[in-house]
Design a protein that fits this description.
Blueprint: H1 16-30, H2 36-46, H3 53-70, H4 74-91, H5 96-112, H6 117-130, H7 134-150, H8 154-170, H9 174-187
């Protein structure tokens, strides 16, 4: 969870309380041993402070990830991730990277719930926007291929993986190209 590094421009000064609470949540999450309840409490406290709409979406994203990865409360994870997605969608084009990343997290939640068709459509829609962010695009393609595989649509899954391999070959990223080629080999 990178909290402040890549997120907010300087103009959002009244988000400072939420940023401090996000940092507190990250401290508790990465503490040894981790204190996930405290991290969630810090994130919930953010909603009691003044913050921009974009920051509220970012907090929803972080709390959704915490619920998904570290608790068994998948419905709360789903709720917060969907709130984050809609908030980032309303925030505009400068938050596209986060919106696509949130869409990938939503896909993981929906896959665990075995709800595949809506998330397949979501990832297809976001794939056009993810091309500017190669690592997120790779994650999206792998998730999309996994969804097609779970639906026994092996031809489309294979096509997606092949497209990923050729894309990352063109981009000069041998590691991701290798992952896509290995995944492609597993289909046959």
């Amino acid at each position: 969870m990178s909290v402040v590094d890549n997120y907010l421009p300087e103009r959002y000064l009244f988000d400072q309380a939420a940023i401090l609470l996000l940092e507190g949540a990250e401290f508790f999450r990465s503490h040894n041993p981790p204190k996930y309840k405290m991290a969630i409490k810090c994130l919930k406290a953010c909603f009691k402070t003044l913050m921009t709409h974009e920051m509220a979406s970012f907090v929803n994203f972080q709390i959704g990830k915490l619920y998904f990865y570290y608790t068994k409360n998948i419905e709360l994870a789903r709720h917060h991730l969907e709130q984050a997605y809609h908030g980032m969608k309303e925030a505009g084009a400068e938050y596209t990277k986060y919106r696509v990343e949130i869409a990938c997290s939503i896909a993981e939640v929906y896959m665990q719930l075995k709800i595949l068709e809506p998330v397949k459509q979501l990832l297809r829609k976001e794939s056009a926007h993810s091309r500017d962010f190669p690592l997120i695009h790779a994650r999206l393609l792998f998730l999309l291929a996994e969804i097609h595989g779970a639906m026994n649509d092996w031809n489309n899954a294979s096509e997606i993986v092949e497209a990923g391999a050729s894309l990352f070959s063109q981009l000069g990223d041998p590691a991701l190209e290798c992952y896509f080629r290995l995944s492609s080999a597993m289909f046959w």
